[in-house]
Amino acid sequence: MFYKFRYETEFNPFLDRLPLHVRMKLDVTGVKLSLQDWLAFSIEERTAICHLPADQEEEKQAFKDYTNFLCRKYRGTPAQVVRPISPALWETSNQVPSPVLARAGDNGTAVTLEEWLSWTSHQRYALYKTAVSKSEPEKFFAVLDELRQRST
Q1: Alpha-carbon distance 26 to 37, whole Å?
Q2: Can you list the pairs that 54-58 forms with residues at least 24 positions away whose Cβ atoms lie under 8 Å?
Q3: pLDDT on residue 84
Q4: What mean pLDDT do residues 120-136 have?
C-alpha cells in the first residue's frame, strides 16, 4: 500500500519528491536516499519503491536490497546506510509523542490521545516526522488537517 497525503499532490504524478510514506520506509530500514538518488531512478522504479512493503523483517531486507540495487545501477555506489529509526517513536499507544504535542500547541490545536489512537501507523509517522522537521514545519498542519478531515 502507498498512502498519498493531499499536500503531496503537486509532485505525486511524477514523484518529484520523496513521499512521506516512502520516507517512513527509509527511516525504518536505515536507508538514506538523497533527492538526487531518488530522481535518478525511473518513474517506474520510484513507483515500485512507493508500493513495496517494509513492515516485516523480510520486507525490510527486500526494500533495502532494491534501493541498494538502484543506487548502484544509477549512482555507482550503494545506498547510504544509517541507523534505522524505531517505530516506537510514533507507535506509542498510551501517549501522544511530545514533539507532536509541542508542534500542535504552536497553533492551539492539541492532538488528543483519542485522535492519536485512531490513526494508522503511517499517519502517526507523518505527524511525528513533520513535527520534528526543521525544514518544513508547515507540513505538520497540512497533515493534521487532512487526518482530522478524514476522521469526520
Answers
A1: 13
A2: 54/24, 54/25, 54/28, 54/29
A3: 96
A4: 90
